[in-house]
Amino acid sequence: MLILGMMSGTSADGIDAALLEFSALSAGEPRGHWHYSYPPELQERLFRLQESDAARPLLAIDREIGRLHGEFAQQIRSAGVQFDLLALHGQTVAHQPNGPDGYTWQVGSAYDVAQATGCTVAHDFRRADVAAGGQGAPLVPPFHEARLATDRPLLVLNLGGMANLTWVPARGSRQATRAFDSGPGNVLIDAAVQVLSRGELRYDANGDWAGQGQVQENVVQEWLALDYFHRPPPKSTGRELFNARWVEAQWSAWQHGKADFLASLCALTATSIAQAAQRWLPPAARMLVFGGGAYNRTLLSSLQTALPDVAVEMGEQVSGIPSAAMEALAFAWLGGQCLLGRTIDLHGVTGQREAVVLGSLYPGKNWSQLLSLRAQLC
Hints:
The chain is an alpha/beta fold.
């Protein structure tokens, strides 16, 4: 086997590449060596990063999140639940996928998870899509199609922090699944609740507080002028754009009551979803809603008003899949696809140039057994 090794040392002067003819019975034979020098400006940037404390908080939280995932997985195992592969999405801390240097980053050390559980971990799902020219999000739509497709087209909405819209074609159709982030889901509403309650509340349970307010339509229309809402897919977004700072700025200029503010943010979320579905997706008669926002009655009522020709339904009640479990199940499925080496076609979702395998594998103590199980699945 010929293996190309690549290394950049602390000197940060460039990349050394060496070709090894590998043998399991010896140290192998060198077959070539090459060097690429970093541009001086890049080398200086690397030195500044190495000599500063900028990266240390991120690296520390990467390990902390990983350990928490590992400990939680062990608690589940202690309850008698067995698993062969652990699929780790991690916690997104940066998402700016546009342009040649676009990026997405999820913290949560797979190595700490594997150390805690002894289990092989599939992780780092989004960056492969970004490398292939995609947005890195949303990645759940292929699972929506595999699990929820019926004999008629269907809309699936995930109301997490952001709102992800998926159009699932009818089963057996030659049409492709289409999906994108329409904009905010719960993120602005949750941030507003925390601001208005001075930190005493984290979210508006059932949407009851917002339900007491009146929507200020003129302000909602001003909010809907934001560039992101008018940008065509493929697109994805995160807290870089929709965040607590934006909420605080809007609240500082607000001239109505607190409940009106929440009601108007619900209307912003619902209207932006409805307009995105009407503008960029084929028609469908039903919409299944998952995620924490599915329990916000005011938000769902606003969504139904904005989509009068679509039956807006709680996905949990229709599919039997708990609203909070949909994305975790989707990444479990993606972990299985990664193990099998299957490419995922997201051209009509993220805009990737070509289908790629999503995720990386870190072998745990069960790696040999998992390879045997993989052979059976193949």
